[in-house]
């Protein structure tokens, strides 16, 4: 049964999580954006802020209410916590005649994610398939994921770019969460609390809640239905897998390459992209060495370097690789699209390239060619 938590009691959730040994990471305002950082109280949350997003445009502005989660998504995703930008894989120190390799299991600590949007729940599920469900499990990811507590928050304020509904998701939290919140602003400012696991039920039992009424539940339903209605029809994904693979030599790839800076911003803000490479370093005295995994991007010239040459030497081939992988061959690999409709790649592209527009350009070019 759903419960109701008063808005001014949100701090009790953070306190309960910390008492259970979790480091709490949630949204906060920093340098003009909403980013995920470690917090210890509810006053660190972005109360009264919302975001305005358009291609190559992101701005925060004040709301006319005290909404805590009244924004869409910022440049950070939970990938920063589960697949950090830089992770030491191992360190070796000289010992006698050889080297002793240190265990790196200490990278992971119990962490509660506060404010996980439904699109981000979907993104975490996709990365779980990549790193946990395949033939080889990523040990660092697995250790972090096993110690994660997820507090999801239903989306009531999608940006003008969000299209999670058309990407197969929605503004209501579904799937693997421990606690899910729906923020209600009409009447009493409050949160509907749902639990999705035994751990979530244990935390929720510590909160000063009351049982949700039919009116509370109806209000929560209106929040997500209104958000979904705003997003319908923003992206036509019908047949996009075959469309892109039929048009690998489309002139559209040349047109987008003229605008693409190959900066990799789209891959860095994407909550599902997972390209990495490793760096090896040794101390000058030869007494120690270490290997570090760092984020990379398929837009980097070096990423496609291999013995004998470069497989994607031009922006055209790199952009084509990214888009066709994200919306087509990702399905062949992992059984799902690599896109969750968060639109970060559109907002944070310096030149405002919109993947939805590029798909439509390929569709239009194919239709024109077919009727020529």
Mean pLDDT equals: 94
Spatial strand sequence of the major β-sheet: 3-2-8-9-10-11-1-12
Structural class: alpha+beta
Main sheet makeup: 8 strands, mixed
Shape: globular
Q: N-to-C SSE series?
A: EHEEEEHEEEHHEEEHEHHHHEEEEHHH
Query: Poorly predicted ranges (pLDDT <50, ≥5 residues)?
Result: none
Number of alpha- plus pi-helical segments: 12
Q: Span between N and C termini?
A: 60 Å
Gyration radius, rounded: 22 Å
User: Based on DSSP secondary structure assignment, what is the total number of beta strands?
Assistant: 16
Commentary on this structure:
By secondary structure, the protein is α+β, with helices and mostly antiparallel strands. Helices cover 32% and strands 24% of the residues. The chain contains 12 helices and 16 strands. It has helices at 10-19, 79-82, 118-131, 139-146, 198-204, 214-231, 240-246, 252-257, 265-269, 315-334, 344-347, 355-370, and strands spanning 3-6, 23-30, 33-38, 49-54, 57-62, 86-95, 98-102, 111-116, 148-153, 179-184, 190-195, 210-211, 276-282, 288-295, 305-306, 309-310. The strands form 4 sheets. It has an 8-stranded mixed sheet, with helices on both faces. The longest helix has 20 residues, at 315-334. The protein is globular, with a radius of gyration of 22 Å. 38% of the residues are buried.
Short synopsis of the structure:
This protein is an alpha+beta fold and 372 residues long.
Write the layout of secondary structure elements.
Layout: E1 3-6, H1 10-19, E2 23-30, E3 33-38, E4 49-54, E5 57-62, H2 79-82, E6 86-95, E7 98-102, E8 111-116, H3 118-131, H4 139-146, E9 148-153, E10 179-184, E11 190-195, H5 198-204, E12 210-211, H6 214-231, H7 240-246, H8 252-257, H9 265-269, E13 276-282, E14 288-295, E15 305-306, E16 309-310, H10 315-334, H11 344-347, H12 355-370
Parallel strand pairs: 2-8, 8-9, 9-10
Antiparallel strand pairs: 1-11, 1-12, 2-3, 4-5, 6-7, 6-14, 10-11, 13-14, 15-16
């Amino acid at each position: 049964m759903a419960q109701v938590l008063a808005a001014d009691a949100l701090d009790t959730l953070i306190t309960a999580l910390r008492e259970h040994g979790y480091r709490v990471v949630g949204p906060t305002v920093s340098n003009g954006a909403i980013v995920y950082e470690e917090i210890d109280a509810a006053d660190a949350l972005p109360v009264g802020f919302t975001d305005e997003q358009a291609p190559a445009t992101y701005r925060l502005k004040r709301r006319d209410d005290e909404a805590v989660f009244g924004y869409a998504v910022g440049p950070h995703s939970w990938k920063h916590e589960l697949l950090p930008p830089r992770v030491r894989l191992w360190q070796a120190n000289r010992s006698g005649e050889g080297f002793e390799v240190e265990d790196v299991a200490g990278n992971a600590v119990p962490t509660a994610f506060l404010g996980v949007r439904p699109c981000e729940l979907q993104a975490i599920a996709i990365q779980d398939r990549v790193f946990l469900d395949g033939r080889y499990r990523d040990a660092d990811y697995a250790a972090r994921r096993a110690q994660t507590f997820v507090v999801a928050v239903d989306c009531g304020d999608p940006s003008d770019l969000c299209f999670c509904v058309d990407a197969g998701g929605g503004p209501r939290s579904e799937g693997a969460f421990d606690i899910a919140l729906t923020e209600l602003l009409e009447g009493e400012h409050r949160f509907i609390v749902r639990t999705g696991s035994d751990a979530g039920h244990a935390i929720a039992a510590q909160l000063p809640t009351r049982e949700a009424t039919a009116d509370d539940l109806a209000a929560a339903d209106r929040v997500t239905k209104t958000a979904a209605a705003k997003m319908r029809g923003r992206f036509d994904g019908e047949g996009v897998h075959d469309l892109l693979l039929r048009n690998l030599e489309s002139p559209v790839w040349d047109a987008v390459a003229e605008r693409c800076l190959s900066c990799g911003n789209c891959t860095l803000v994407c909550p599902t992209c997972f390209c990495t490479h490793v760096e090896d370093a040794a101390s000058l005295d030869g007494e120690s060495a270490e290997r570090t995994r760092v984020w990379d991007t398929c837009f980097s010239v070096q990423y496609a370097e291999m013995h004998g040459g470069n497989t994607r030497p031009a922006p055209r081939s790199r952009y084509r690789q990214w888009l066709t992988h994200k919306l087509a061959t990702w399905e062949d690999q992992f059984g799902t699209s690599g896109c969750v409709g968060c639109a970060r790649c559109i907002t944070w592209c310096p030149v405002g390239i919109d993947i939805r527009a590029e798909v439509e350009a390929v569709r239009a070019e194919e239709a024109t060619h077919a009727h020529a």
